[in-house]
Amino acid sequence: MQALKNTRNQWIEAYYSGNHALLEMLETDEFFVQENNRMANNDLRYQQIKNLVKRGKWQPERLLEKDLQFHQLSATEYRVTGIVYSTSIQISIEEKWLFENGQWRAASLIMTA
Question: Which in 21, 35, 76, 104 has the greatest CB count within 10 A?
């Protein structure tokens, strides 16, 4: 599970730094983000991050985590649940992680405010 935690930390840092190339590497081809029942298209998501980084405007609010739980579903699949929050918001998260080709990759992120 330590390898999963390390990869997850890389994935989170890639997001906050706007490293879309690393995000693409650490996410499955079928990766999706669902936020309050809205789905985000990955191609558009990566393009938006890339454009905002290029213009120096990529500054997502860094959220804190609490009550993270790692649920092993099989030898190659985990579900991570918990809460991310700041002083103004609190969001429930559910991530799905798959072990593919020798590495952990994010398969989905579901966020509910």
Answer: 104
* Tokens standing for residue 30: 């079928």
Distance CA(16)–CA(92), nearest Å, equals 18
Kindly report, residue by residue over 19-38, the tens digit of the pLDDT. 999 999 999 999 999 998 89
Order across the sheet with 64-74: list the strands: 38-40, 27-35, 103-112, 90-100, 77-85, 64-74
Residue 86 phi, psi (nearest 5): -140, -170
Structure tokens that stand for 44 in this block = 């558009």
pLDDT digits (tens, 9 = 90+) for 57-71: 999 999 999 999 999
Handedness of CA 51, 54, 55, 57 (dihedral sign): positive
**8 Å CB contact between 106 and 97:** yes
